[in-house]
């Protein structure tokens, strides 16, 4: 019998009900229920005990989805504000409650936070490398469409200036941004015709950026585009694949030189195609904007874990973890101090500045008790911290632990 195809995705019901979990958490709950131990009160913390090589910080995102997941359950949730830059070994979230009420949600919680945080962190690194120049995220072709809005959101929160995904942009209350695909030129069979039609059909608010590497050399097509659209041309995009690229910096230099000597200095250059922060840094003095997809959509993982650190009010943890609940205090220079939960710190041990606690209550017995900022506000928080990381070299200051 011919089998009917389906989408292999978990819907909101499966996620919210706890069905989207690992079987061993269901087995643990069944055992605890059997001996009436599911009501055991615990404190569990989300943290990372190590970052990818070369990473000194990460950007905490995904919190809003965790709030959605835990809302209505009899648990308390404390967390760093979404968009907070954090360091290894710092708790980013704290859940208090009966283990039986939230234990089965551990995979979903970590999946939401770990995936989003990894994408946001990579986006932030690329945005820093771009030195203030625009970064467009268009990596949804790299991922399953069911989660494309989540990845768009995480990339935007991390610092990308815009996203190309329509569904993600709608959820973020943004205008999707993009140029044109090679398919347009290939279907029409004429790049000049494609550029002209793009100009004639698209509304005025869409920048006229011509894709210039479909049939001929980038330098040749860039000049053709400038001569075809004249002053209406905002920019050209080079999407040269690595298999044909050679030295991309020299290609960009050729394009810039050719445009300039023919009187087209107004035409900007956007580069895309297999870029990461290293490529962006190498091109930033020549290029006016970057399109980045795969490296942000498939970033190195920020390995977050959820571990019990207290049981019935007493410190407890598995080996390799620090037992007992913890709070993180931060000064305006992004120096962090980690202390036992409940201890009050007023001054930074590094610079002497005033500090404030980062983990703040979000849920009380399942009820939301704090505002959830929108994506634009979170992104601004991220960009402000990135600026401080660079200007004050705060990235070299790891957290200070005071037991």
Characterization of the model:
One of its GO terms (molecular function) is nicotinate phosphoribosyltransferase activity. One of its GO terms (biological process) is NAD+ biosynthetic process. It is an enzyme of class 6 (ligase). Pfam families: QRPTase_C (PF01729), QRPTase_N (PF02749). The chain has about 400 residues and is α/β, with parallel strands linked by helices. The chain folds into two domains: about 10-120 and about 305-400, nicotinate phosphoribosyltransferase (Alpha-Beta Barrel); about 180-285, Aldolase class I (TIM Barrel, Alpha-Beta Barrel), CATH 3.20.20.70. It has 15 helices and 19 strands. It has helices at about 10-15, 25-35, 65-70, 100, 105-130, 150-155, 165-170, 180-190, 190-200, 220-230, 240-245, 250-260, 275-285, 295, 375-390; strands spanning about 40-50, 60, 75-80, 85, 90-100, 135, 160-165, 210, 235-240, 270, 290, 305-310, 315, 325-330, 335-340, 355, 360-365, 365-370, 400. It has a seven-stranded antiparallel β-sheet. Helix 10 (about 220-230) links the parallel strand 8 (about 210) and strand 9. Helix 3 (about 65-70) runs antiparallel to helix 5 (about 105-130) and helix 10 runs parallel beside helix 12 (about 250-260). The model has no long low-confidence stretch (mean pLDDT about 95).
